[in-house]
Amino acid sequence: MLRWAVHLEGGPRRVNHAAVAVGHKVYSFGGYCSGEDYETLRQIDVHVFNAVSLRWIKLPPVWTNSRDHVREVPYMRYGHSAVLIDDTVYIWGGRNDTEGACNVLYAFDVNTHKWFTPKVSGMVPGARDGHSACVLGKSMFIFGGYEQLADCFSNDIHKLDTTNMMWTLISAKGTPARWRDFHSATIIGTKMYVFGGRADRFGPFHSNNEIYCNRIKVFDTETNSWLDSPPTPVLPEGRRSHSAFSYNGELYVFGGYNARLNRHFHDLWKFNPVSLSWRKIEPKGKGPCPRRRQCCCRVGDKIILFGGTSPSPEEGMGDEFDLMDHSDLYILDFSPSLKTLCKLAVIQYSLDQSCLPHDIRYCVPCREVIPRVLPVLGVLQPWLRAAWGLLWHCAASGRAGLETTAEADVQWSCSSPGHCVRAFSQCIPLVCYRWELSAMTTNSTISRPIVSSQG
C-alpha cells in the first residue's frame, strides 16, 4: 500500500541541491535558496537527515589551514551531482554564479566527514551543470548536462572507474539520446534509463526553442549501446528538474516542470522495464505540491523527498520567475507498518485527547499529530477499536523492550476497549510524544512530522 506517510517542515530550504542515502541517513550537499548571499565564495554546506529520529542537523564547516586545503573542499554550488560508492560520496560538476561551472572531482568520507580531491587521470569531462550521475558497481556514469566552455547541451557519456580513478569517454553505439540537461538517469540491472530533461529543437545549442522529451532512452552498459524503445500508448508529460528512483526493478518519476506547457507537476509515474510500459500511480495520503528541483533518496522501503521550488500560490502553476523555495520533507512509504496505518486511522477520525493525563497534553503542542481519545470508545467501529488496541500493544511491547512483528500484531486482539484506552494513555509518550519532539532541528527550528490523513 503506497502512501505519503510523513510531512515535515523546517528543514534546510534548498533548490537544485544533491543528496545521497547512507544507511538510515540522507546527506544533502549545496543547492541554493532565493534571498541568500551567493556572491561571497564559501564552502558547500552539508545537511544530514536522520530517517529514524526525523531530525535535521547541519555539519560544521571544515576548518582550512592552508591554500591547498581550501582546494579540497568544494565551493557552494547548484546543479551538481552526488553519488555514494562504498563509504565515499563523490561530488562532481555544478556551478556558482561567481566561479562558474566546475569539473573537479571532490570526495567526502561519510565516516570522518572529511573532504579530499582524488587524483584522477584519463579524459576528464568538461565543466557543466544539470547533468546526471548514477552508479554501477564501482563506476560512476555521467550523462548530458550543459557544458560551460562549449556553451551547449551535451549527450556524451563519461565513466569514472573509482578503483583507479580514471575517466573514460564512452564511444557509444546506436542512436544516442538527445543533447539535454536537468534530466534523470537511473540504473536498473546493467542498463541506464534516461528520462526527460530540457533539449533544443535544433540541436545542442540553446536557441530558446526548448523541447521536453517524454520517451525513455536506454543505455546498455555491457555493450555500450543505446537501445531503441518502442512507443507506448500511455506516457507522462515531458519535463525537466524532476526526481527519479528505482524500486523493485521499476523506475519511478515524480514532479518536474515543462516550460512549453508553463506547468509544474506533482504526479508519480512508474515505468516497467520488462513490459516497457508506463502507469500513473496514485499514492494514499496528501503528497507534495507541484514542484521541481527537489531531491529524492531511497532509504529501505521509504522515499525521502525534500526541498525544491514551486510557483507562488497567487501566481498560478507555472510562472518561471515568481517562485517559492521549500524547506519541507515528505516520506513516501512503499510498505507502511500496521502501527503506522493504525496511527493514520486514529488521526483521520480526529479522536479527542481531553481524557489524557495533563502532563502528556501539556507536552503535545501539535494537535495534528497526536490522536484524541473519544470518551465513549464503544461508538467507534470495531476496526478503529482494534487500531487503538494495536497502538497500545506496540507501545507496551516497546516499553517492555520487546520486538513487535507484523505477524504478532495481526494475531493480537483487544477484548476490553476501555482497558486499552487507559493503558494506551499511560504509554502514549512512546508512540506520539517521541514522534513529535524527535523532529526538532539543531538550529532551534521545529520541524514537526505532520502525518498525512487524507486518502
TrEMBL record:
Keywords: Kelch repeat. The keyword Protease does not apply. It comes from Buteo japonicus. SUPFAM superfamilies: Kelch motif (SSF117281). It comes from the Eukaryota. GO terms for cellular component: cytoplasm. PANTHER family: KELCH DOMAIN CONTAINING 3 (PTHR46461:SF3), KELCH DOMAIN-CONTAINING PROTEIN 3 (PTHR46461). InterPro entries: Kelch-typ_b-propeller, Kelch_1, KLHDC3-like. This is Kelch domain containing 3. It holds the Pfam family Kelch_KLHDC2_KLHL20_DRC7. The keyword S-adenosyl-L-methionine does not apply. GO terms for molecular function: chromatin binding.
